[in-house]
Amino acid sequence: MPLCQRVALCLRCLLPLLLPSLTHAALPRAASVPGGVAVVSLGPIAAGARPPRAWLGKQPVLVAADAGQWVGVVGLALDTPPGTYALRVDEMEQATAQGKSRSVQFRVDHKDYPAQRITLKDSSKVQLSASDLARVEGEIAAIQAIKRHWRDADDTDTDFVLPAAGRLTGRFGVRRFFNGEARSPHAGFDIASPRGGTVKSSAHGIVLATGDYFFNGQTVFVDHGNGLISMYCHLERIDVQTGETVGKGQRLGLSGMSGRATGPHLHWSVILNGAMVDPQLFVANPGRMN
Ligand SMILES: [Zn+2]
């Protein structure tokens, strides 16, 4: 028998053994800092056991299998103060038994993000009119609700592909000051995709919402399950509809500069348990911008 056939046979035999650990083989890189992702061990996987449920405050968090352990994959918002936090973990041993809760502590360390100071001559772009402000406040509330969305799934893919081709032009977490006034930090990743460039879904999922927002312009949210959501902004055209299933790498629309953008680019954000986290942690080779 040729070697390749024997190898194929071998792999087929081994596959059932390998699968439990392969299911979540590519977790995001752990970075237990504001804007990062904490990977918290929740204990060994017992044979036949269902994954435990884990909560950070009132927000459920993603639980994955990794090297024989259950781990909580916890998104940490940029404004998380460093310190000690605890996940509440509910064991789901038997459908009939009462789940028992325990607490698992983890640390969040300090991280310094660079500052960027921008001077704009047209102050109307810094100071919003009353009507723009009212619109923005409504949109912030709507986006907050989208960010907290939860859907149980057993196939959440955390190994993302870059959603567009182009140079990286804006890093996550940069603290921005317009004409000396502090603005919200940059909660995403900018790729210099040209007008009309293809914007792809970073993993498979379900289109959670689309919208046309004051700052973010034409935007698509894709729900990957278990509180993992990706967001694509400033699009020139949206090609998908809410509720549609999309595959990894499937086109969502075309890049542009809708909303408040100084030039065409894709702003890409990743949301985990309601927190905007660094998208680069989900990409195997973030240095490659092809
Ligand atoms: Zn951006």
Structure explained in plain terms:
The chain folds into 2 domains: 86 residues, Immunoglobulin-like (Sandwich); 168 residues, Glucose Permease (Domain IIA), CATH 2.70.70. Helix content is 13%, strand content 37%. The strands form 3 sheets. Strands 8, 11, 12, 13, 14, 15, 16, 17, 18 and 19 form a 10-stranded antiparallel β-sheet that branches. Strands 1-4-3-2-5-6 form a 6-stranded antiparallel β-sheet. It starts with a helix and ends in a 13-residue tail after the last strand. It contains 2 helices and 19 strands. By secondary structure, it is mainly beta. The site of zinc ion has 5 residues, from loops. Keywords: Signal.
| Beta-strand content bin | 35-45%
Helix content range of the residues, please?
Answer: 10-25%
What is the 3D shape? globular
Number of domain modules: 2
CATH C-level class of the largest domain: Mainly Beta
List of distinct ligands in this structure: zinc ion
Structural class given helices, strands, pairing? Answer: mainly beta
Helix count, DSSP H or I runs of 4 or more residues: 2
The whole-number mean of residue pLDDT values reads 88
Q: Which parts are unreliable, with pLDDT below 50 for 5 consecutive residues or more?
A: 1-24
CATH topology of the largest domain: Glucose Permease (Domain IIA)
Extended strand count: 19
The CATH homologous superfamily name of the largest domain equals Glucose Permease (Domain IIA)
Report the radius of gyration as a whole number of Å: 21 Å
* Largest sheet data: 10 strands, antiparallel
In whole angstroms, the N-to-C terminal distance is 41 Å
Second rung of CATH, namely the architecture of the largest domain: Distorted Sandwich
The H/E string reads HEEEEEEEHEEEEEEEEEEEE
